[in-house]
Design brief:
mainly alpha; single chain
């Protein structure tokens, strides 16, 4: 991973302006406590929107959740951002450690 850090670490850029487009999916009148609970997820989704990237998340979809309880896959789905699980990433990349029990 160290050899590819430039591809893995996102620098702040114009994707920051998309954060408000993501946050509105959580609610229009979020307070400071709610924003803190949401954390960095909106920045991740906004960066994926800007760069045409895929979001990898351990969260499962729960479309009935509201406000700060919304899940990343559901937010991504609404915004047209592809979101996959870490397991799907491993399978898609055919990742293997070569370890045998």
């Amino acid at each position: 991973m160290r050899d590819h850090q430039d591809a893995l670490v996102l620098d702040p850029d114009e994707s920051d302006i998309l954060v408000s487009d993501v946050l509105i999916r959580y609610g229009e009148d979020l307070n400071e406590e709610e924003l803190e609970r949401i954390g960095a997820d909106p920045f991740l989704v906004a960066a994926a929107m800007h760069h045409g990237a895929i979001v990898v998340s351990k969260e499962g979809s729960k479309p009935t959740k509201t406000r700060v309880n919304r899940r990343v896959p559901d937010i991504c789905d609404e915004l047209g951002v592809t979101c996959i699980t870490d397991h799907r990433l491993i399978v898609d990349l055919n990742f293997s450690t070569g370890w045998q029990p």
